[in-house]
Design goal:
Helices cover 29% and strands 30% of the residues. With 301 residues, the protein is an alpha/beta fold. α2 crosses α3. The longest helix is centred in the middle third of the chain and has 14 residues. InterPro entries: AAA+_ATPase, ABC_transporter-like_ATP-bd, ABC_transporter-like_CS, ABC_transporter_ATP-binding, P-loop_NTPase.
Length: 301
């Protein structure tokens, strides 16, 4: 089966600055991919090329077997930039109807699509509200609804949950997760903890060069959990080592512990949480495997 997106030896230069340098990767249907990297790494340039806003200096991009710019791709790929804005004067219904019409939908079909996408993001009851009346989180959900009009096969989201309260961030995660079988998402964000809740593949850009990572938690005869506590002490690491099944423990950063355990130990996560309860430890997060931040930037020793 051919990949949904194929990028080969992609380069983009702005004068003397090489923004992308021989970037190659592929994305298959149903994958949710994180695009991460420091500021100036080339993420925005890559997004812009995938969307057709920029022309690469060299290399090739094929989307659904078509070259960039092919009319057959119209409506198949959608993107939501971080700074997307909505007109505060119009209602959700009127504004999304307008975007549907821009996609070539009939008046009736645009209205049906508006109702569908507002239902997806949990705003069906707010369709008559004006944008100016909405909270920041609700506005972000409307923008995501806009990106879903027409049922695109590929959706690119830049900082989809940035600045949101936990409830709105959870709503957006739910939307992405519920649609991920039918839509391939590429998500760009500086919030690595947010990305690791959604993504199974990672594209890490740094100075225009790319490294690909799979979110694989298994390594030979051992597996990993990352435990983040609300409070810890000087004895915490040694206390975790005393738990049966534990092979090795390291502290990657403040209150975060990487625990290597025997792979044949079933339900070790429950075993660990019971141990935390026994010792009156409160935990902030328990991740299956290394955290995304640790996978990208640190080495387990």
């Amino acid at each position: 089966m051919s990949a949904l997106i194929e990028v080969n030896n992609l380069c983009k230069a702005f004068g003397d600055k090489q923004a992308l340098n021989n970037v190659s990767f592929d994305v298959n249907k149903g994958q949710t991919v994180a695009l991460v990297g420091p500021n100036g790494a080339g993420k925005t340039t890559l997004f812009s090329i995938l969307c057709g806003y920029l022309v690469p200096s060299s290399g090739s991009v094929n989307i659904m077997g078509k070259q960039l710019g092919d009319p057959a791709l119209f409506g198949q790929l959608s993107a939501l930039p971080q700074d997307a804005t909505l007109d505060p004067r119009f209602s959700l219904q009127k504004q999304l109807n307008f975007y549907g019409r821009l996609q070539g939908l009939s008046k009736q079909k645009a209205s049906m699509e508006t109702s569908r996408v507002l239902e997806l993001v949990g705003l069906a009851d707010n369709h008559h509200a004006k944008i100016a009346e909405l909270s920041h989180g609700m506005k972000k959900r409307v923008c995501i609804a806009q990106a879903l009009i027409g049922s695109p096969k590929i959706v690119l989201l830049d900082e989809a949950t940035a600045g949101l309260d936990p409830l709105n961030a959870r709503e957006i995660r739910h939307v992405i997760a519920s649609l991920s079988e039918d839509i391939t998402f590429i998500l760009s964000s500086h919030d690595l903890a947010e990305l690791e809740k959604l993504c199974d593949h990672v594209l890490y850009l740094n100075q225009g060069q790319l490294t690909r990572h799979n979110r694989d938690t298994k390594q030979g005869t051992s597996q990993y959990l990352t435990l983040t506590l609300i409070h810890d002490s000087r004895d915490t690491l040694e206390q975790i080592k005393q738990l049966s099944g534990v092979l090795h423990v390291s502290q990657s950063q403040n209150k975060e512990y990487i625990i290597e355990y025997q792979s044949h130990f079933e339900q070790f996560d429950i075993h660990l949480l019971k141990y935390c309860h026994k010792l009156n430890w409160q935990y902030r997060q328990l991740v299956n495997g290394h955290t995304l931040e640790n996978q990208l930037f640190q080495k387990d020793k």
